[in-house]
Amino acid sequence: MAQDPNARVIAAGDFNEFSFVEPLEVFTKVSKLQNAYDVVGTPKTERYSYVFDMNCQQLDHVFVSEALTKKAEFGHIHVSTWVTSAEQVSDHDPSVGRFNICDNS
Question: Which of 1, 21, 73, 102 has the fewest beta carbons under 10 Å from its own?
Answer without folding.
Answer: 102
